[in-house]
Amino acid sequence: MSNFITNTYSHFEIPNTLKKELAILMKARHMEYSDMPVHDLNYYLKPLNQPEDEEIGIIYILALEQLESQSELVGYARLEYRKESVYNQNNGVLQIFVKEDKRGKGCGTRLLNAIREETPAFLTTITMHAEKDSISSKILEKKLLVEKTSENRHYFSVIRELSFEEILELEKEATKELEKEELEIIYTNSDTFHEIENEYAKLLEVIWNIGTDSSEHESFPVERLRGRMQYFIEEFNIFMHTFFVRKKSDNSLVAITENVLYKSNPKVADEAIIGALDEFNDEQTEHALRLKSLVLLLKETEVTHWESSELKLDESLQISPNDEILGFRIGKIFNIYSIPIKKFLNR
User: Fold this and answer.
1) 146 close to 136: Cβ distance less than 8 angstroms
2) Reading across the β-sheet that carries 265-276, which strands appear in turn?
3) Whole-number Cα distances in Å, 108 to 32, 175, 245
4) Residue from 232, 270, 224 nearest 50 by CA
5) Among 16, 152, 157, 294, which one is least packed by beta carbons within 10 Å?
């Protein structure tokens, strides 16, 4: 019978003696969940050494197995949330991970029960992800009777398999088509976003709230944009490349794509956001933005794998011809569970 001991820590309370072991577990989780080359260990270790954040709260439950003369960190639960209900955000995001050879012995249940005791009272929902048809998804659905709210399909392109000359020609053609509509593509990044930060924030607020009702509306003031950029840079060494579509008639921004690059992993780029105002939310606009991003990645970076969570499938769940041109394929599929807090707390 395994002897698991759980201890609770806020972000800044994690003992230095456990940080490297925890980072190794986080990397192991990423390796299981990802189709992509994983980051170096410092990507997972660096945030653990940062001081407490003023806005973001993180609770860790660490599970150790007591061996003959020492203990081993074998699993963790991590709950991230906003300390105050700013921007109408009352959701906590929960991860639970147990080393593969320690599963099925009750450690995951111990972690779940422990994190329930620490969950802030003001949260209204808890979000969890689990790979489709995995043991984790079966536990959530059959033992905890939680229903998935949606699926998240992982799409990625191995871009070095593509012909740069062909992509460059397609990008020129797509740009010309936009110009016929009196539209142009402009560029900014983590260093220069402040030059258009007001317009940037306004567009993000609209796109952020597409498909939500008024009670779920999240405001996106300039201060939030600045904080987001600072968080990316300081916590995860992320550099953002952003392309906008702008109307020439009034210089207003109508569409956006953000791609992030990681100093800890020069082989991976992530299309974090792509979206447009209703009038411009069409396949042609998105394709032009993706082509622009792809040219930058091929020409100016070492990126080999480009990922996105934003591709749209047709009725038969196939990738569109435009996205096939960019080399995208379907990788892992995840169930997303949005659990009402009372159900999560088993009350």
Assistant:
1) no
2) 4-10, 56-66, 71-82, 91-98, 125-131, 328-340, 150-158, 305-308, 265-276, 253-262, 238-247, 183-189
3) 16, 51, 46
4) 232
5) 16
Extract the tokens encoding 273.
Answer: 């956001």
Q: How far apart are CA 204 and CA 189, in angstroms?
A: 15
- 29-50 pLDDT, tens per residue? 999 888 899 999 998 998 899 8
Alpha-carbon distance of 294 to 326, in angstroms, equals 8
Which residue, among 240, 305, 328, has the nearest Cα to 35 in the 3D structure? 305
- Sorted by sequence, the CB contacts under 8 Å of residue 295 that are 6+ apart come out as 164, 167, 168, 171
Query: Per the structure block, which two tokens stand in for 127?
Result: 């979000």
**Could you tell me if 47 and 235 are in contact, meaning their C-beta atoms sit under 8 angstroms apart?**
yes
Q: How many whole angstroms separate alpha carbon 138 and alpha carbon 248?
A: 52
Distance CA(91)–CA(79), nearest Å, equals 10
Tell me the whole-structure pTM to 2 decimals: 0.77
Name the token pair of 49. 């050494």
Which amino acid, 333?
I
Number of Cβ atoms within 10 Å of the Cβ of 299 = 10
Q: For residue 333, list its beta bridge partners.
A: 153
Q: What is the distance between the alpha carbons of residues 12 and 23, in angstroms, rounded to a whole number?
A: 14
- Cα–Cα distance for residue pair 226/191, rounded to 1 Å: 11
Residue 83: helix, strand or coil by DSSP? Answer: coil
Per the CB < 8 A criterion, the answer to whether 259 and 271 are in contact is yes
CB 241 within 8 A of CB 296: yes
* Structure tokens that stand for 141 in this block: 């659905």
* Residue 1 pLDDT: 46
Count helices and strands (H / E) in the chain. Answer: 10, 12
